[in-house]
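Task card 7
Instruction: Convert sequence to structure tokens.
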Amino acid sequence: MYGYVDPSVKIVINPQFEKAELFSEGFAAIYMAHRWGFIDKTGKIVINPQFEAAHQFVNGLAPVQVGKLWGFVDTTGHLAINPQFENAGDFSDGLAHVSLGNRFGYIDKGGKFAINPQFDRAGDFEKGLAPVWVQGRQGYIDKSGKYVWNPTA
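Output:
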């Protein structure tokens, strides 16, 4: 069972979870009874375990898996972006990589594509650039989707 300790290694949330992730933005994903949910720093369940998978909160949204599809939940437990993606990553620099039909692209916090799915793989944006892969070759794009280094050039 998993719980949480403070920096002095004093137990602050008793071990009671089958799995537990790190806190981010005041919440941590926890796994109980074959489902993922979220707790606050007091250990109170704030979003009931109901997801097949969950990641950390970034900018108020966390990727969650409902059935076979991924969407995003806000800190109140409301689905802010409906499950519709085969995969989803955390938001970084305002965009999150998602996949449809085995192609990766990027969405904004409203769930709209900022960069259409066109990559075999995609990574997080950092300082305005993100790694992408096409036919096994890595390149980098900016937030408009333009290559700053093209793997096929």
